[in-house]
Amino acid sequence: MNSLLDLIVDLVELILVLAVVVAALAFWGYNKIRRLSENVKEAWSNIAVVTRKKVALVNQLIDVVKGYQESEKLVMLKISDDLTVGTLQQAHQQTGAIMTAINGMAQRFPELKAGQQYSRLVDSIQQSEAALENARTRYNATAKEYNVTRTSIPHVFYSGLLGFHPAAYLDLDAVESADSGVQRPMVSDDGERVNELLGMAGSKMLGAAKRVAEQGRLLAEKGAAHLQEAVDAASSTATEFHYLDSQKNPKGPVTRADLDLLFQSGEITNETDLLPAGSKSWTKYKDLPQQRQAAAG
To answer: What is the sign, positive or negative, of the torsion defined by CA atoms of 37, 43, 46, 51?
Structure first.
């Protein structure tokens, strides 16, 4: 029984040591993942700036074509302050649809196409589209570096605890609902302070270690209970016992009834060591099943 308990205790201690090692790695690797997450935030911010510029240029172009046939179908675009993947994709698709409609109008109205303001805005919109594609490419590269680092060993063991979540890749042509809830792939502002994040990680590590220790203790108690049941079963079914007298000399074999008589006469005590026949585990006389009380009474 003791050897099993010692093994379980050693296992719990090993798990606790591993938890401490993971916590130490989290402190060591925090700055690296933090730097990469800031790169992702910066790349996303660049995309947002270019997108807002493009939307503003398209709205200016809508003003230019007002008064031409079918221009009443064009609606000014709005873009939220807090961009998501869905709203970015929606803005890209809406500006594309408007530019297609305006290009069609320019083919029917040569004087519109020849206008300097129209030409200047179209050129600026094309430049912003190229800038947006470059920004998207840089963002996806930055997100890939962050994701690979976040999910590599040893960072994968603690990055989630520190509040670092996966960065979504951006595909402007994909269909994504604007209210899909896919937010900017970065650490939330609420967790930006190092002491807050590391404090959260420390408490979670401590809580995990306590849970592991508690589970280990319950496992040890359960194992001890099963072993005791086995000893009790062997004791209750054994017909003979060996025991150690007061000088620790082996005696026996004797029956259970003989043991009870020896106890009543004082030749053995509650602490006398007993070895049931067929068993390899010693037990105490006091640990025999309760029926001994009647015999001892």
So the answer is: negative
Amino acid, res. 254: V
Q: Delimit the domains of the chain by residue range.
A: 2-208, 238-296
Which phi-psi region, left, alpha or beta, contains residue 143 (left: φ > 0; alpha: ψ -120 to 50)?
alpha
The C-alpha atoms of residue 91 and residue 198 are separated, in whole angstroms, by 37
Q: Under 8 Å CB-to-CB from 168, ≥6 apart: which residues?
A: 85, 143, 182, 185
Phi, psi for 144 (deg, rounded to 5): -65, -45
Q: How far apart are CA 155 and CA 159, in angstroms?
A: 6
Domain 2-208: homologous superfamily in CATH: LemA-like domain (1.20.1440.20)
Residue given tokens 């031409």 in the structure block: 68
Amino acid identity for residue 178 in this structure: A
* Cα R_g (the chain), whole angstroms: 38
First to last CA, the chain: 30
pLDDT (tens digit, 9 = 90+) per residue, 233-277? 544 555 788 888 888 888 878 888 888 889 888 889 988 988 887
- State pTM to two decimals: 0.53
pLDDT one-digit tens code per residue, 125-160: 999 989 999 999 999 999 999 999 888 877 777 677
Class of residue 48 by CB neighbours under 10 A (exposed 0-12, middle 13-18, buried 19+):
middle
Superfamily holding 238-296: GYF domain (3.30.1490.40)
User: What is the residue type of 228?
Assistant: Q
Nearest to 60 by CA among 124, 145, 147, 131: 124
- For residue 203, count CB atoms less than 10 angstroms from its CB and return exposed for 0-12, middle for 13-18, buried for 19 or more: exposed
